[in-house]
Amino acid sequence: MKFFSILLLIFFVTNGCNTSETNSDISIDQKIGQMLMVGFQGFEVSDTSHVVRDIEEYHTGGVILFDYDVPTGTPDRNIDSHDQVQRLNSQLQSLSDVPLYIAIDQEGGRVARLKTDRDFPRTVSAQYLGEQGVDSTRAYAAEQSELLQNLGFNVNFAPVVDLNTNPENPVIGQLERSYSADPEIVTDHAEIVIEEHQKQNLLPVIKHFPGHGSAWNDSHVGMADVTDTWESIELEPYRLLIEKPLSFGVMTAHVLNENLDPDLPATLSRDIQTGILRDSLQYNGVLFSDDMQMDAIRTFYGLEFAIEKAILAGVDILVFANNSVYQPDIVPDVVNIIKQLIRDGVITEERIDESYQRIMESKEELELI
Known about the structure:
Elements: H1 2-15, H2 20-24, H3 28-34, E1 36-39, H4 50-56, E2 62-64, H5 82-94, E3 101-104, E4 106-108, E5 111-112, H6 126-132, H7 134-151, E6 155-156, H8 183-199, E7 203-209, E8 224-225, H9 236-242, E9 249-252, E10 255-256, H10 270-280, E11 287-288, H11 295-298, H12 303-313, E12 318-320, H13 330-343, H14 349-365
Parallel strand pairs: 1-2, 1-12, 2-3, 3-6, 6-7, 7-9, 8-10, 9-11
Antiparallel strand pairs: 4-5
Helix pairs in contact: 3-14, 6-7, 7-8, 8-9, 10-12, 12-13
């Protein structure tokens, strides 16, 4: 199997990403697997861990690491020390025929999975950097991106480009995750962070589209409705960054904005993710969902409905962090749901091909392939 997959990868690189023959040689299971990113418990890869099955049997294309395990309320998750993380990431990559996205949320300040109590360098918040100026941001971003590359990460869910329009926002403003309320300041700092990540062959992922900064609620624990608070200026960092010669991913927001979609939150909305992000702003890169197990999605929508709508909305990678609830069988469950949606004609194979191609082009650009 590994030899056959290596031959396919050689064919892929040799013939380019746009040949229909390439896609036709890859099974639907492999394509669906590339659209999934999963979290797991463990400081090392164990033969009994579901992540081994998820990667080897279900072709899962990405994993995400955390320092704290929310379901058990303990720091026993994935990150203990520099050498341990480096070893874990190497073990994970060895399981996969196609190189994995290995992701982390390393924004800095309150949202940093690499903490000083585990002998990682001290970090500062985006708000602090926004107040200090771009030179400080470049120095910090260079140090952090080099560290991430050395540890074996290739995706960082940062920088945050939400505007600090509501400083009392419990999940953005109060945690100092925004550089500023001024979109030009946010864009200037985000551009530097993206550039420094690119130097290390890392994919930075800007978030949370189309804007989470004005919310009064935390989408981790419920629905965040920004209908009355969101402003179109929150799209400006995305527009400005997309116009630049930069390479980055985008993460969706689990926010409800009835002015943009009267029925569905942004992650599940085709009007927002395709209509605004893809068609209006002309973004052509990889689109990640925010964690599909957060309460804003999990408690309001069934799993099958959420998966269907997210894929139809234009999401390329569905993230199941397994850190709001822990569901060891989430990957096989999701794969079976997607395959049934294809059999029922709800989702087309062409739609799966679109995401698969974006993902593989990104992995090639990162020199993973």
